[in-house]
Amino acid sequence: MRHLLAAALLAAGLAGPALAQGQPPLRCAVDGTFAPHAFPTLQGGVQGFNIDLFREAARRLGRELTIDSASFSGLIPAMNAGRYDFLCAPVTATQERAQSMLLTEGYLYTAFQLGIRRGSAPITSMDDLRGKAISVNKGSAYDAWAQANAARYGFTVQTYDTQPDAVQAVLSGRAYANLGGNTVVRYAATRTPQFVPDFVIRETRAHWSAVLPMGATAMREQLENALECMKRDGTIARLSQQWFGTPPAADDAEVTVFPGTGVPGLPGYDPTPREPRC
Predict the structure, then answer these.
(1) Is there a contact between 243 and 187 (Cβ–Cβ < 8 Å)?
(2) Could you report how far apart the first and last alpha carbons of the chain are, in Å?
(3) pTM for this one?
């Protein structure tokens, strides 16, 4: 009887990976111009934090992964049309998006962050910006926020056609600080030693999630389970430090396993307790 049980367990163990290998590749898509999350390689492919993240998640699911690169504006319609199983582009979890698609819990927090020139006085609060100039990428969400809050905090706004130009304005002294996304500001600092990530505007913090079509509840649970296991064993934290230059804080999403499934507080969130199966 013991031999039969061992044989059955062995057969089940062999059948699981074989079944997974027999499934078609998972299909996802990114905006391939958004460094350091996804951007071109010299060989013509894409590289970046999100590429490494979801290739590893797919590996843990026993699936191959096909990644397409396309304009961000077309990604969600293409997914909803059935072209992709999920999006591996960083997507901010919002109330509006949660009403029309499924979101995993955040694997990163996106937040507005200020970067300054090395040697400048650190920013400890928004009051420190009074009378100073802030550089932003023209037309971005950071541009819109800065324009809306300039009078409140007493700073002036300088707009530039690209984020690298906005960073250069800080390095040259034309602006005191650059306002951008936290991962982009941190990545710029790894490429420009005189540029330093500084104050994070914490009230702007939100989940960056993988998104799936409505109804893909089983796939969401599988994908979120893989991401949670990668949080527990430190994989996402290591990728974060590799691509963004600094280790995540103890309360950052890279290391936080959130309760339930999805983004707490948003439509589509399932509060049912679920222990990661790693």
Answers:
(1) yes
(2) 29
(3) 0.84
